[in-house]
Structure prediction request, 106 residues.
Amino acid sequence: MFGRRSRHTTTKTTKPTLMTRLKGQNAKSKTYKTEVTRHDARHHPHTTTRTAPAPVHHHRRKPSMGDKVSGAMLKMKGSLTRRPGEKAAGTRRMRGTDGRRSHRVY
Prediction:
């Protein structure tokens, strides 16, 4: 009576690569949030110009592949032993925000 529909639909999904899993899915894109509000004094005499504060710059380095792997192992070890500090240290090592090579030695 009604039109025939196929009951079988096939979708092909690929396994993520090692680099995708280590870097994260959104490693290519960066999001910056800026807000600038300006008012013209002629139309609104009681308003002022207001700009968003400058974002805080955190020191980052480019983590090597060894940093990624050792950070992942550290993160896994922290998860298994239920030590959130160790897990966080692994995340920082993977992302390059752990502070290594950030202090000058003279």
Remarks:
- The radius of gyration is 24 Å.
- The helical segments are 18-23, 65-80, 84-95.
- Strands lie at 36-37, 50-51.
- Residues 18 and 24 are 10 Å apart (CA to CA).
